[in-house]
Specification:
Alpha-Beta Plaits, 6 helices, five-stranded antiparallel sheet, four-stranded antiparallel sheet, Ribosomal Protein S5, domain 2, alpha+beta, elongated, 11 strands
Length: 207
């Protein structure tokens, strides 16, 4: 992997996984999910709250995007920074993004104290991560192309040479399509498309 491609790749997980930690009668069930947006996060949280409705806490943390700049840590009633932060810390220490971890706690009747809670939530999250398969993802943007039939061959040659997959193709009076381009190749793509005679704009809806 060269330095240029490192700029737009990051680690995530291939599929959901689970973890568990037990301490003084309390049980901490960890659920890890690959996610792409906050709507998916809300769906997973709602499902777990319905399924484990009798649990005392549903604490979670997530990171989204290339650098994990979109994130949140939630203690769900536990003392401040004893649950969400330790879970988030595991995502950070494992350099994971586009990942949600929810830890469901069943109280065992004995208080664990602040250090005990931090250790429990961290350990449950760590167990779920250790059971997951990590994958390398590539960050990119979906762009919308407009061009005339006269330059179609030039446009399609660029797409083929860059090994891109067009979607949402529409061949009416003019041609249009969407194509997802990795971040490190955006400038090159825009330059080549300008030379080919296509206009390029950012696509505002999922391709």
């Amino acid at each position: 992997m060269n330095q240029e491609t490192e700029k737009d790749t990051y680690l995530s997980v291939a599929a959901p996984s689970k973890g568990i930690y037990k301490e003084k009668g309390s049980k901490f069930l960890a659920f890890l999910f690959p996610v792409e947006n906050e709507d998916q996060i809300k769906e997973h949280l709602s499902q777990l709250r319905r399924e484990y409705f009798d649990a005392r806490h549903h604490c979670f943390a997530y990171r989204l995007g290339l650098n994990g700049d979109v994130w949140r840590a939630n203690d769900d009633g536990e003392p401040s920074s004893t649950a969400g932060r330790p879970i988030h810390g595991q995502l950070l220490s494992n350099s994971l993004s586009d990942v949600l971890i929810v830890v469901v706690r069943y109280f065992g009747g004995i208080k664990l104290g602040v250090p005990g809670l931090i250790n429990a939530y961290r350990s449950a999250a760590s167990d779920a991560i250790s059971n997951a398969v990590t994958v390398t993802r590539t960050a990119g943007k979906t762009l919308h192309l407009n061009f005339g039939y006269g330059v179609m061959n030039d446009v399609m040659k660029v797409i083929k040479d860059m090994a891109l997959t067009p979607s949402g193709q529409d061949f009416g009076l003019e041609c249009s399509m969407n194509v997802r381009v990795r971040l490190s190749e955006l400038d090159t793509f825009r330059t080549l498309m300008a030379k080919a005679g296509a206009s390029v704009t950012e696509h505002t809806c999922p391709a």
